[in-house]
Structures are given as C-alpha cells and as structure tokens.
Amino acid sequence: MLRLSIVLLAGVVLSVASVMPRAIAQTTAQAAGAPTNWQGQYFNNDSFRGTPALTRDDGASLDADWQASPGRGVNSDYFSVRWTQTQTYAAGTYEFDFTHDDYARLLVDGQVVMEQWHMQAPTTYTDSVDLAAGPHTITIEYYTTYGQAVAQLVVTQTAAANASGAAVIASSLVAGTYFDNTSMDLPIALARVEGRTLDFAWTDDLATVLSKDAFSATWRQYVVTTAGVYRFALTHDDGARLFIDNKLVLDEWFTQATTTSSTDVALASGMHIIIVDFYHRWGPAVVQMQITPLAGSAAPTATPTSSPQPTATATSTPVPPTPAPAATSTPSPAPTVAPVTPSSSPTPTATRTPALAAPTPTATSTPAPPTATRTLAPPTPTPTPVPPAAPAPAGGSTNSPQAMVDDAALPHEDCLDKNYVNGFSWQFGPDVGWWNPSPPAGYGALTGWFAITTDASPTCTTQPPVANVRVEIRKYRTYALASGTWRLVQDQASGGLGSGLFFPNYQPGWGSPDVRNEPDGGQSWLAGASGLWHGWPSSRAAIPAGTSAVCSQYEARLVLDDPAGPDNRSSARMLAESGFDWWQSTASGSNELGMNGRYKLVPQDGSYRWFN
C-alpha cells in the first residue's frame, strides 16, 4: 500500500527536521482537489534506463516497504522507480516528510526539493515548500541496492499563503566558531557545524572545550529568499549583534539578562549571508534566532527592542542559473534578477569583513536532513530561456538553489590529503564571500577552476587510486553577476579545458595529466601517482563591468578507462570541488585567490553530480 496524507494545521513553520518517521493524522481535510494516483515506472537498473520492467497505478498515497520484488518482472534488489503525481493545491506552505533508504530525490514541478543520492539506512528528511494555488507535479526518483526497500511520503500543509510573497527558499547549515574569551580574540577554541537553526541554551561547559562562563562565538548561515520583509528576532544573554550581507542591522553588544531583540529587514530575491556574534559572561547562556516573513507592507518597519534599532535594506547575491533537469529537453530559464530597490530608511554604516575559521566536519554517519523552504509557482507550459541555455544531455543530474547554498557553506564530505592542503584555511570547508568578494585593484580578468583528488584515509593521507576508473567533467561554466544580471563568461562547450597535475600544496611539476575527450562532450582524467587534477577553462574571461558575484559549476561522474575491463567504480572514492580566481589580465599577470566551494564525493554508480 502507498500512503500520502495532507494535513491542515494552524501556525507557521519555517523549518522542521526529523530523523524518524512522523505520526500524522490521516482524517483531516486535504488540499483543494482530490489527489490523482501515483504512476510508477520500475526499472531493473540504477538510472531509469530503457523500457520500464513494470508500469502501474500505485494508488493515491505513497507507503512502500518491500522485502522482496515490488511486482512482476522487477528485481528483488538493485532496481529503480520513478513515481509522478499531479494534483491541485491551495496556496500555502507544505511540509514534505520523505522516508527512504539508499538513493532518492524529490522534485516539485521539475525543481529538486530533496536529494540524498547515496547508500543509507531508512531515514526521514523534511523540507517545506511554498506552493501557489493550482496544479503541481511531484516526482520521486528512487534506487535501492539490497535488503529492505522503503519509500514513504507524507505531505502536510503547515500554513496558509503569505500575502506578501516573502519566503525562505533555501538555507544552509550554521557554521560556528568559538573563542575562550568574551571578545572573539584568537586563538579559536572550537569550530563546528551546527543544525539549520540557531537555538542554544547552555548551563554547563560547552563541548568540554569552553567553560560555561566568559566565552564568545560567531555563527554564519546562507539563506536564499524571495523579495519581501523579514523579522529577525534574537534572544540572547549577554551581548549579541546581527549582520545581514555584512551590514550591521542589530546591535545589543553589552552585558544584560536574557533579552529578545528584533528588527525588520527588506531583502531582495537571492542569496544572503547572516552572521551572529555573541558573548557571554556568567550564568545560563542563551542565543536563539528566528526569521519570520512578514505579510503586508513592502517597506521595513523597525520593531521596538530593548534599545533603538536601525532599519536596513540588505543587498543580496542572486542565485546563479540552475541547469535544466535531465528529464526534460526544454532549456531551463536562467533567473531574472530584479535590481535591489534602495529603501528610504537609513542604512547602517557599520560593515563586517568576517575572517572565520572553516568548520570541522562532524563525525556522524547520519546525513543532516534538509529543512529549507522554497517558493514554487505553477509550471508554465513553455518557459522562455533568458539567456538561452543548452538542454541538459540525457543522463544528466539536477542542480538546485539548495545545492548551491550547501556547496557554499557545508564542510567537505570527506578527508582531504594534508599534503595538498595543509595550512590552507579551506582544509575543512569552503571559503565563500570573504576572501576577495570584489575584484582587487588592478585585476581585470577571472577564471573558474576545478580540483579532483583521491579520497584520503582517516589520517588525511591520500589512498592509491583505483584501477580502470576515470573522473569525467562536463558542462563547466562560469557566470558573473554584472549589474544585476547573470552572464555566462566561460563555457567548456565552446572553449575547452586546460589542466595540470599538482603536489603538494598546489605546486606544479608532475607532468601532463592522462586526459581524454568523452563522447558526451566531457573530459576525463585517469588518476595517477600525483593524486590531484587541477584545471580551468582554456581562456580567462574579462571581468564584466559591475560584477558583484561569480559562480562556477560543472557536472562530474566516474567512467571506465577500458570498458572491457573490470568495473571498480564502487571502490573509487574521488573528491571534487569548484572555485574561481581573479587575474590581472586575460593574457598574463599573477592571480589572486577568489573563493571555493566544498569538496564532494563523485558518485560511485556512474551518475553525474553538480559541483558549485
């Protein structure tokens, strides 16, 4: 039996996370329009290739829990399923609780909402989506290896529509840096990744590293929002201050009892960085933050707090273009970026250039459930690409705002070779937004780049490469946000890639990499003794006038060196990342570090994955 429950609840929930299935009552009213049944296509392979072994109507709700074959002609193990369902929803916020083992992704109207494409025990992931009134199509892609096969979805309406249209589309995990003093002075005592919300109340020592008194901390988080007014509320004891896009919007930096301070901020559509500084002297330590979209006026209004607060208009970094999903041959439109409209309210003059330690990866085998909120409008029949984009080749993967945010904020997915990156600030996580977020004086060019390395052991020493396995890169593109519009400035399809072998600490000298061109337009590398393949588009790009942000992205997968040889991809653990640097000119001169995303594992099943 398959189960889908839609429950109407009162209240507003911005983000919820769970690691166990939730008990949801099934007797309350459903969204407008009776749900259509799930249509299932079953394949005896890992990537929905060829003609389905079974196609059937799987009922109105999704509650799969199989110990054997799900149906006639389908394997008991190692099979994939694609389910689709279209129904009419009332406008509002909906919570998707998706429980599954192994590999799965959930899409709403072709946009990826959840993606956990890796082996795992049954785990529940929760995400919230703002839906406009009208029909929406939910697609689930699922692949199981062996043993129990679980795929269960519960959809709950948690709030009616927000009249202002303000919504948090995606949010990263919170990265925290702690100091054993009250003034955030070096050395750093602790750096770690928190959950997706800032909600702490300590009464004892913190992680056995800091005492319960006289410490300070700073946290950063990336969020993607629609345009609107948002209330930021900080509960703290003692001092706290809040920066949005490096502008001070709330300043309570003094010793005090537990206090809640808030301010309303108008945010443009796009990505924003939130930074909270905090210090504590004695007694219980509390720091909590809530973000609430406000309905009504588009102009921010200061909310009375324990001290007068400024009203601020924050400048955002819009999300780069999201490539089209593989399931469609229609080009995916790049987003239209609306210029930020200055507010008539005064803008605080205090700014912050954060110099934060990279977070230390958490030692856990349980993935952190995504809890972002996205705003999805009903699909349009024929989207018009702006600018035109090539359709994604068959077999491609999907990219999403959440993936871009996570690549900017989460720690690396595994250990890097200490010989390659020892001493670099990004040894444990990405550096985004505070190295050189604007072109340095005298620099007129830029280039994206990629780095591929073999996975390291627990001692952070590279392991020998696996025989007969290559890493392929395709669709490498670099975008510049120039005067509010994303412009494609480098494209592998038209310019190709250059590369070299590096060791250690990005020093050249290991000769030319073993590179070959692949039939689908990509370029692959056979890992050798060097262990690090570092490359870039063949030609640098001139920096467009008015550039305020840069994004580089590509797809990577594992392919066989000799198709007739052994398939060792399941044993190959390769890490890849994307970044960019500023250069003095397109032809010569020195480079200046730009910024880089996180290292992620290249899928072992031969599928593509995006790196941002």
Description:
It is a single chain. By secondary structure, the protein is mostly beta strands. The chain has 3 domains: 123 residues, Jelly Rolls (Sandwich), CATH 2.60.120.260; 145 residues, Sandwich (Jelly Rolls), CATH 2.60.120.260; 200 residues, no CATH class. The chain is built from 3 helices and 36 strands. The strands form 6 sheets. Strands 11, 12, 13, 15, 17, 18 and 20 form a 7-stranded antiparallel beta sheet that branches. It is globular. The two termini are 39 Å apart.
What descriptors fit this protein?
about 600 residues, mainly beta, Jelly Rolls, 3 domains, seven-stranded antiparallel beta sheet, 36 strands, globular, disordered N terminus
Helix-strand blueprint:
Layout: E1 39-43, E2 54-57, E3 63-66, E4 79-89, E5 92-100, E6 103-108, E7 111-116, E8 123-131, E9 134-144, E10 149-160, E11 168-171, E12 175-179, E13 188-193, E14 199-202, E15 215-225, E16 228-237, E17 239-244, E18 247-252, E19 259-267, E20 270-280, E21 285-294, E22 312-314, E23 373-376, H1 401-409, H2 418-421, E24 445-454, E25 469-482, E26 485-491, H3 492-495, E27 497-501, E28 515-517, E29 523-526, E30 532-537, E31 541-542, E32 547-560, E33 574-583, E34 591-596, E35 600-601, E36 609-611
Parallel strand pairs: 8-23, 19-22
Antiparallel strand pairs: 1-2, 1-4, 3-10, 4-9, 5-8, 5-10, 6-7, 6-9, 11-15, 12-13, 12-15, 14-21, 15-20, 16-19, 16-21, 17-18, 17-20, 24-30, 24-31, 24-33, 25-26, 25-29, 25-32, 27-30, 28-29, 32-36, 33-34, 33-35
